[in-house]
Design brief:
Blueprint: H1 2-15, E1 25-31, H2 37-45, E2 57-59, E3 68-72, E4 75-76, H3 80-89, E5 95-99, E6 115-117, E7 127-129, H4 136-146
Parallel strand pairs: 1-2, 1-3, 3-5, 5-7
Antiparallel strand pairs: 4-6
The structure holds iron/sulfur cluster.
Iron/sulfur cluster binds next to helix 2.
């Protein structure tokens, strides 16, 4: 058994399986009013095919366990308070990521009576992920870059 494990470890080193950067980020996703296009791409990024977990990126169910508040969609009037509560519940240091053009305040959706604007109008945004919707590679690339960022 010991020989087999050693052999497997050696083989793993030889074929240099990608392990991603050091560290990890736990992401609490909140839909603040999107059309669900951004959610589809986020789901694809977390699927076994794209497997963003191999880069240390994990979706978590609670803001209390999260490093990043990942927000999709423009912020509706009703979602402002839940966003603020989720942000206040997160342990420091923490990051806010705006996923998609709507979250960045320049998307297709935008009825002034219903939407307050982009995420930056409500919370400080650290990571900006452009696209309508951004594809899984773009989502993973921006979040991996966030692993290197200092958190406030
Ligand atoms: S950025 Fe595009 S896909 Fe994402 S919520 Fe806005 S309209 Fe939908």
């Amino acid at each position: 058994m010991f020989l087999l494990l050693n052999h497997l470890r050696r083989q793993r080193r030889e074929i240099a399986l990608p392990r991603g950067p050091r560290g990890s980020l736990h992401l609490r996703h909140v839909d603040a009013g999107s059309c669900n296009g951004c959610e589809h791409e986020l789901q694809a990024a977390a699927s076994p095919f794209h497997d963003m977990q191999r880069f240390g990126l994990f979706i978590t169910a609670s803001p209390r366990h999260a490093d990043v508040l990942l927000i999709t969609g423009p912020v509706t009037t009703r979602m402002r308070r839940p966003l603020e509560i989720a942000y206040a519940s997160m342990p420091e240091p923490r990051l806010v990521a705006a996923l998609g053009d709507c979250a960045l305040g320049c998307g297709l959706l935008g009825d002034p009576r219903e939407f307050l604007g982009g995420v930056a109008d409500v919370l400080p945004v650290d990571v900006r992920i452009p696209g309508c919707p951004p594809d899984p590679e773009t989502i993973a690339r921006h979040l991996v870059a966030a692993l290197e960022r200092p958190r406030a």
